[in-house]
Amino acid sequence: QVQLVESGGGLVQPGGSLRLSCAASGTIPSINIMAWYRQAPGKQREWVARVGTSGGARYADSVMGRFTISKDSAKNTVDLEMHSLKVEDSAVYFCNVVLWRGDAFWGKGTLVTVST
Protein backbone atom coordinates (compact mmCIF):
# COMPACT_ATOMS: atom_id res chain seq x y z
CA GLN A 1 0.00 0.00 0.00
CA VAL A 2 1.03 3.56 -0.69
CA GLN A 3 0.19 6.31 1.77
CA LEU A 4 0.14 9.91 0.59
CA VAL A 5 0.24 12.91 2.90
CA GLU A 6 -0.25 16.43 1.61
CA SER A 7 0.87 19.60 3.37
CA GLY A 8 1.25 23.30 2.70
CA GLY A 9 -2.33 24.43 2.33
CA GLY A 10 -3.66 27.53 4.01
CA LEU A 11 -5.19 30.95 3.60
CA VAL A 12 -3.65 33.34 1.10
CA GLN A 13 -4.73 36.62 -0.46
CA PRO A 14 -5.46 36.87 -4.18
CA GLY A 15 -2.20 37.25 -6.06
CA GLY A 16 -0.28 35.37 -3.40
CA SER A 17 1.66 32.13 -3.52
CA LEU A 18 1.64 28.77 -1.81
CA ARG A 19 3.68 25.61 -2.13
CA LEU A 20 2.01 22.26 -1.59
CA SER A 21 3.95 19.11 -0.87
CA CYS A 22 3.03 15.45 -1.01
CA ALA A 23 5.06 12.63 0.46
CA ALA A 24 4.52 9.00 -0.44
CA SER A 25 5.36 6.30 2.05
CA GLY A 26 4.84 2.61 2.55
CA THR A 27 5.66 -0.16 0.15
CA ILE A 28 6.12 1.79 -3.06
CA PRO A 29 6.43 -0.11 -6.32
CA SER A 30 7.50 1.81 -9.37
CA ILE A 31 5.58 5.06 -9.77
CA ASN A 32 4.41 6.10 -13.22
CA ILE A 33 2.59 9.37 -12.64
CA MET A 34 2.39 11.84 -9.77
CA ALA A 35 -0.36 14.41 -10.01
CA TRP A 36 -2.41 17.02 -8.22
CA TYR A 37 -6.16 17.36 -8.37
CA ARG A 38 -8.50 19.77 -6.65
CA GLN A 39 -12.11 19.88 -5.60
CA ALA A 40 -14.00 23.06 -4.82
CA PRO A 41 -17.22 23.00 -2.77
CA GLY A 42 -20.11 21.77 -4.86
CA LYS A 43 -17.89 20.88 -7.81
CA GLN A 44 -16.36 17.73 -9.17
CA ARG A 45 -12.75 16.88 -8.57
CA GLU A 46 -10.61 18.21 -11.41
CA TRP A 47 -7.12 17.50 -12.60
CA VAL A 48 -4.58 20.28 -12.04
CA ALA A 49 -1.15 19.01 -13.05
CA ARG A 50 0.84 15.83 -13.57
CA VAL A 51 4.43 14.76 -13.94
CA GLY A 52 5.60 11.48 -15.43
CA THR A 53 8.67 9.36 -14.99
CA SER A 54 10.61 11.37 -17.56
CA GLY A 55 9.88 14.55 -15.64
CA GLY A 56 7.63 15.98 -18.30
CA ALA A 57 4.84 18.06 -16.81
CA ARG A 58 1.37 18.91 -18.02
CA TYR A 59 -1.08 21.43 -16.67
CA ALA A 60 -4.74 22.25 -16.83
CA ASP A 61 -5.40 25.37 -18.88
CA SER A 62 -6.72 27.14 -15.81
CA VAL A 63 -3.36 26.97 -14.02
CA MET A 64 -0.92 27.07 -16.94
CA GLY A 65 1.80 29.63 -16.35
CA ARG A 66 0.92 30.05 -12.68
CA PHE A 67 1.51 26.59 -11.18
CA THR A 68 4.60 24.42 -11.36
CA ILE A 69 4.70 20.73 -10.48
CA SER A 70 7.95 19.06 -9.53
CA LYS A 71 8.97 15.72 -8.12
CA ASP A 72 11.84 14.11 -6.29
CA SER A 73 11.85 10.49 -7.37
CA ALA A 74 14.45 9.51 -4.79
CA LYS A 75 12.27 10.83 -1.98
CA ASN A 76 8.92 9.96 -3.58
CA THR A 77 7.66 13.49 -3.17
CA VAL A 78 5.78 15.80 -5.48
CA ASP A 79 5.30 19.52 -4.97
CA LEU A 80 2.95 22.06 -6.48
CA GLU A 81 4.15 25.63 -6.49
CA MET A 82 1.28 28.05 -6.98
CA HIS A 83 1.62 31.72 -7.88
CA SER A 84 -0.79 34.50 -8.78
CA LEU A 85 -3.49 32.67 -6.90
CA LYS A 86 -7.09 33.53 -7.66
CA VAL A 87 -10.24 33.16 -5.60
CA GLU A 88 -11.31 30.41 -7.98
CA ASP A 89 -8.22 28.39 -7.05
CA SER A 90 -9.74 27.80 -3.63
CA ALA A 91 -10.28 24.07 -3.16
CA VAL A 92 -9.09 20.98 -1.39
CA TYR A 93 -5.99 19.84 -3.24
CA PHE A 94 -5.34 16.12 -3.50
CA CYS A 95 -2.16 14.28 -4.34
CA ASN A 96 -2.50 11.31 -6.69
CA VAL A 97 -0.02 8.59 -7.57
CA VAL A 98 -0.45 6.03 -10.33
CA LEU A 99 1.80 3.01 -10.38
CA TRP A 100 3.09 1.30 -13.50
CA ARG A 101 0.95 -1.71 -12.64
CA GLY A 102 -2.11 0.53 -12.73
CA ASP A 103 -2.99 1.05 -9.07
CA ALA A 104 -3.90 4.59 -8.09
CA PHE A 105 -3.66 6.15 -4.64
CA TRP A 106 -4.99 9.38 -3.17
CA GLY A 107 -4.08 11.56 -0.24
CA LYS A 108 -6.68 13.02 2.09
CA GLY A 109 -6.18 16.52 0.75
CA THR A 110 -5.05 19.91 1.94
CA LEU A 111 -7.26 23.00 1.91
CA VAL A 112 -6.28 26.08 -0.03
CA THR A 113 -8.34 29.20 0.52
CA VAL A 114 -7.73 32.30 -1.56
CA SER A 115 -9.56 35.22 -0.03
CA THR A 116 -9.22 38.78 1.14
Outline the fold blueprint.
Blueprint: E1 2-7, E2 10-12, E3 18-26, E4 31-39, E5 46-52, E6 57-59, E7 67-72, E8 77-82, E9 91-99, E10 104-106, E11 110-114
Parallel strand pairs: 2-11
Antiparallel strand pairs: 1-3, 3-8, 4-5, 4-9, 5-6, 7-8, 9-10, 9-11
Describe the protein in words.
The protein is mainly β and 116 residues long. 0% of the residues lie in helices and 57% in strands. It contains no helices and eleven strands. Strands 2, 4, 5, 6, 9, 10 and 11 form a seven-stranded mixed β-sheet that branches. A four-stranded antiparallel β-sheet has the order 1-3-8-7, with no helix packed on it. The radius of gyration is 14 Å and the shape is globular. The mean pLDDT is 95.
Number of helices: 0
Order of helices and strands: EEEEEEEEEEE
* CA gyration radius, whole angstroms: 14 Å
Based on secondary structure, the structural category is mainly beta
Helix content: under 10%
Shape: globular
Roughly what is the average pLDDT, rounded to an integer? 95
> Low-confidence parts lasting 5 or more residues at pLDDT below 50?
none
β-sheet strand percentage: over 45%
Topology, number of strands: 11
Distance between the termini: 40 Å
Describe the main β-sheet briefly. 7 strands, mixed
